[in-house]
Amino acid sequence: KYIDNPLLIENHKFDLRLYVFIASINPLQIYIYDKGLVRFATSQYTQNIENNTTDSNDSMEDDDQTKKDRLMNDNEILCSHLTNYTLNKKHPNYKNKNKEIKWSLERFWDELAKKEKELELKKLEIRQELKQDEVANDEEEEEEEEEEMSGYLKQHILKQVHEMIRNVFKIGYTKLNEGFAYQFSNNNKNHGRCFDILGMDVLIDTNYKCWLMEFNRYPSLKCEH
Fold first, then answer.
1. Who has greater pLDDT, 198 or 120?
2. Beta bridge partner(s), residue 211
3. Region class of 10: left (phi > 0), else alpha (psi between -120 and 50), else beta
4. CA torsion, points 116, 199, 164, 151, in degrees to nearest 10?
5. Helices (H), the chain
6. Does pLDDT of 148 surpass 60?
7. Regarding predicted confidence, which is higher, 33 or 52?
8. What are the residues whose beta carbons fall under 8 Å from the beta carbon of 38, sequence distance 6 or more?
9. What is residue 54's predicted lDDT score, i.e. its pLDDT?
10. Residues 143, 82: Cα–Cα separation, whole Å
11. Chain centroid to CA 168: how far?
12. Which band of pLDDT confidence, cut at 50, 70 and 90, is reported for residue 204?
């Protein structure tokens, strides 16, 4: 499913790259690292791609410059809809250092804190969801509620991310455990001790609903700075 209402920052599409650490299979122990990345599309987001479609017969008659222009247009569209770093780092804006295409996750949380001030009407609805199973025990809790909920968008997003992780491993645990047992059933030396790190890519829409894009088995851990 294509998400046609992505949340934008400065009119650029982005996703979150989160890192999930599997510490144990049996028993299952999973952690999510509190640091991650925000990956941006290099070109400004647009839903209008009609100009990108051409008649195949006309294309046979195009001169070299027209073909070059069309290829550039194709790349612009790709770099406005896809957040893949390998693709976007080839864009001229990035090569010329005119665009940032990566943020730290911490910087993103700071950006969300600013957006909270613009979303007072939505705040009550999300707060009620977060607080639906909690009851204030005394007046002090009620007085501190406003301060505690200052990062409610972050909490709202992380709650969805944690639920995604639980659901994915609930579905895949049987196969995961079978593979673990096959690999380590005769490993008396290490007693099946192992770990793994997965990359988790999440898209956020304008309603602050999170969409799981993929779990990456081999996430890049390379640092280019």
1. 198
2. 203
3. left
4. -20
5. 56-59, 64-81, 85-88, 92-95, 105-116, 120-131, 139-148, 152-184
6. no
7. 33
8. 14, 15, 16, 17, 102, 103, 104, 105, 107, 108
9. 42
10. 44
11. 15
12. very high
Task: Collect all residues with Cβ–Cβ distance below 8 Å to 209 and sequence separation of at least 6.
Answer: 160
Backbone φ, ψ for residue 84 (5° rounding): -60, 125
Read off the pLDDT of each residue in 90-106 and give the average, rounded to a whole number: 77
Per-residue model confidence (pLDDT) at position 150: 66
Nearest CA to 160 among 199, 135, 129, 117? 129
State both tokens at 223: 């640092």
- Highest-confidence segment of 64-78, 136-150, 157-171: 157-171
CB 211 within 8 A of CB 203: yes
pTM of the predicted structure, to 2 decimals: 0.73
Q: How far apart are CA 101 and CA 94, in angstroms?
A: 7
CA dihedral 57, 60, 66, 69 (to 10 degrees): 70
Phi (first) and psi of residue 55, to 5 degrees: -80, 130
* Long-range Cβ pairs for the range 189-195 (8 Å, 24+): 192/25, 192/26, 194/25, 195/21, 195/22, 195/23, 195/24
Closest CA to 218 of 191, 200, 194, 192: 200
Strand partners, 168: none
Q: Rounded to an integer, what distance in angstroms lies between the CA atom of residue 68 and that of residue 89?
A: 19
**Which of 36, 38, 37, 35 has the alpha carbon at shortest distance from 12?**
38
